[in-house]
Amino acid sequence: MKALVLLILLISFSLQLNSQKLKINQAEQYFKEYRFAESTPIYKELIFKDKISVGKYENVYRHSIVSADKSHDYIFLYDVLNQFSQSDKFNFDDAFYFFQISLHLGKYEKAKEILNSSIVLNSDNPKKKLLTNYQGGNFIDELRKDTLGYEINKSIFNSGIGDFNPIYHPNGIVFTSARDIVLLKSKYDNSSYLNLYLFSKDSSVHELQIPGTKKHQGTACYDSINKIWYYSKNFRAKKSDTLISTGIFIYDEKTQIETPFTFNIEEFFTAQPSLSKDLQTLWFSSDRVGGYGKSDIWYSVKIGQNWSTPVNAGNIINTSEEEMFPYCKQNLLYFSSNGHPGLGGLDIFSAELGNQNSLKNLGANLNSNSDDFSLILDETDKVGLYSSNRENFIDNIYSFKIKTLVFLMKGKFQSPNVSFADIQKVPLYIKESGVIFDTLYPDSILSVEFYGEKEKQYEFAVNDEKYLPITEYYSTVGKTFSDTTYKVFELITKVLDADFFVYDSLTNLPLANSNLNLRNSTNGISETYASDQNGHIHSKLIRNNDFEYISKFDGYEYKSSFFSSRTKDNEVKVLIPMSKIPVVVEPPLEVGAFIPMQSLSFEFNKWNLDKESKLELNRIADLLLSTPNMKVEFNSHTDARGSAAYNLNLSKKRTEMAVTYLKSRGVKSENIEGKWFGETELLNDCKDGVVCTPEEHKENRRTEIKIVSID
Question: Cys bridge to 310: 212, 298, 430, 485, which one at CB 3.0-4.6 A?
C-alpha cells in the first residue's frame, strides 16, 4: 500500500513538472512577442503558486520583472523583487531597480533598507552615485518636509483610463488619452491606443482630427501663431512581434501636410516635443546614441525653416536613468526624472538654463511616490497643469496652485440598507485628546468635510444606538504638505431581523407550534420560540455573532444546525425542513449495549470535529442528559495505516476531543469515560501489509458508545 502511495506521489509530481513546463513555455512565448498583459498572470502563478526556484529559473524571474513593469503590475513587480533579493542571484542592478520600485510604491522604509544594504554600500557600480545622493534615506525625509505647498485638483475631463500631457490651446486644453472610444488596443498592457483630445471651453471633449495612425499618437505641443502641431506617434512596426518605436511629426493645419522631424531615428525613441515661447527651440526626450542613459532631454534650434542637429542638455539635467517631458518657461527648464533624488517614480524638477547649481526637486505634494510629469504653467507662473499616476497607477491630469498648506478630510457615509434621510441624522463626533469639540452631519450627498490644523491628531467617531460604532483617525503631525484624506463611514445596524420557517420536508406544509431553541454560540445566551400557524418565527439577532438552533416537533426528528449573523444585510432567513421519525425498533438501553449513532467523521490522520459530527454528539448529549443514571464508555478505533503507537495516540486524541465536547454540552464527567484502542480491534483483515480499499479502511476507523451501568 505504501508503495502505491509513493507511485501516486511520483506521478503527481511528474504531472506538476509537465504543467509547470507548459506554463513556462507559454509565458516565455508571450514575453518574446511583447504580449506582457498575457505573460504577467502566468509568471505570477509560476512564482507564487507553483513556487519555482530562483536558482533553477533565474531567467523566468528576470522576465517576469520586465513583464510586470510593462503591464504596470507594480505590486507583483515589488513582490518578485522582494523574493529575488533573498537569493544569491541578486546583484547591484537588481537592488537599484528594487529601490526605484520601493519608492514608486511609497515603501520608503524598504527603500532606506536597500540604500543601507551591503550590496549597495560595497558596490563599485557607477550608478551607486545616484543612490549616494539619497544620503542613506535622509534626503527622502527632508524632501517630504521641503515643500512650497500646492493646491491640487483632478481635472474634470479625466477618463479614469489614462490621460496626460496637457497643453494650453486657444480653444481649451489639449491632452493625450487612452480612453476607450478608440477601438484599437495595445498588446503590451491591453490599453487603448493614445490619441490627442481637446477639452473645449464649453467643457466638451472630442478627438482632434489630425493625421492618425493605427498605433499610439500623443504628447504634443502647438504653435498657435503659425498653426503648426508637433506630436509623437509610432512608426509602423517592421514585424508583428517587435517593439514599436516613436518619432516626432509636424503637421501644418494650413497646408494639411504632415512631415517627420528630420532627426527621427526609427531604432530609437524620440518623443514629447515642447516648443520654447519664442518658437525657436524644440525640446524633446530621446534614448538615441550620445545620451547619458535610458532617455535624455535633447533640444534642436530653428535655423531658417530647418532644425539643427539635436544637442544633449548635459549631465546636470540628464542621468543614467530616465529624463522626460521637457517644458521651458522663463529660462527655466521643467522636466521629470527618476535618476535625480526624489520621492519615487518620475519626479518633477526645474533647472535654470546656464546655471549648473540650480537643479531643484519641486517637492511634495506636487511630487508623489508615483510618476509625476508633463508640467505646464499659465502666465502667472503660479497656476498650471500636470500629470500623475498616483491613483492606482492610472495617469490623470491635475491642476495645481502654489499656496499655503491645507489639510482636508473628506468623509463619505454609506449604507446598503439605511435611507438617505436616516443617514443624514447620524452625528459624526470629532475629538481631540478624547474630548469632543465639533459635530458634523452628512449633507445631501452624504458627505462631510473637515479641515485640520497642523500638528494635530483627530478622532472621528459614530456612536449611535442604532449602528455599530465607527472610529477613524486622522493626523497632521509631521505633515509639511497639503493633502486630502478620504474616509468612508459605513453604517451597519447593530441588530438584524431573523426569520425562521419550519415545515414538513415531504409535504412542504408549515409546522405550527414547533419548538425552536436558539443559542448564541458567541455569548452562550439561549432563547426558546414557538412557530406560528405559518411555521414562522421572527427574532432580532445581534450582528456579527454565531448561532446554533435545535428545532423540535412531536413525531419529527429534531433538526439542529449552525448559522451566522455575519452579514451587512438587514435580515437573514433560515429554512428548517423537518422529517418525520421513521418507525424503527430501538435496541434496549441495557448494560453492554451500544448506543446507536452515526459514525463520527474524522479525516485520515485528523481528530478535529466537523459540524456534522458535532450535531451527532448533540443528540448523544441530549440522551445522556435525559438518562442521568447511565454511565457510558466512549471508544475510538483507527485503521492500520501508520505505526501502532501513532494510531493509539491518534485514537486517544479523537476520544478526548469527543468527550470534551460532550462535557461542554452539560454531560457530567462521572457519566462518561473515554477509551482508545488504536488499530488493536480491526473489524476486517486490513492489517499492516494487506492492500485494502479506502472503504475497507474506513470500516475500521470508527467510534462507539458502550453502556457500562444503569443505576
Answer: 298
Q: What angle do CA 393, 445, 572 make, to 5 degrees?
A: 90
Q: Which helix (H) or strand (E) holds 230?
A: strand 228-234
Residues facing 373 on adjacent strands: 387
CATH architecture of 495-578: Sandwich (2.60)
In this predicted model, what pLDDT tens digit does every residue of 489-499 receive, in sequence order?
Answer: 999 888 999 99
> Are 150-402 and 611-710 in the same CATH fold?
no
Tell me what pLDDT residue 181 has: 57
Q: What is the predicted pLDDT for the residue at 13?
A: 46
DSSP codes of every residue in 44-74: HHHHHTS---TTT-HHHHHHHHHHHHHTT-H
Cell digits of residue 394: 492610472
Q: Which of 486, 429, 432, 438 is nearest to 460 (CA)?
A: 429
0.85 exceeded by pTM: no
How many Cα atoms within 13 Å fall on the side-chain side of residue 353?
16
6 SS3 class: helix
Distances (CA, A) of 596 to 64, 586, 704, 707: 60, 8, 8, 11
DSSP 545: -
* CATH superfamily, region 407-490: Immunoglobulins (2.60.40.10)
What mean pLDDT is reported for the chain? Answer: 87
Measured over all CA atoms, what is the biggest interatomic distance in the chain, rounded to whole angstroms? 119
Does domain 24-145 fall under CATH 3.40.50.10330? My reply is: no
pLDDT per position as a tens digit, 592-624: 888 877 667 566 667 777 777 787 888 888 888
The pLDDT confidence band at residue 7, using thresholds 50, 70 and 90, is very low
CATH code given to domain 611-710:
3.30.1330.60
Question: CATH classification of 150-402 is 2.40.50.140, yes or no?
Answer: no
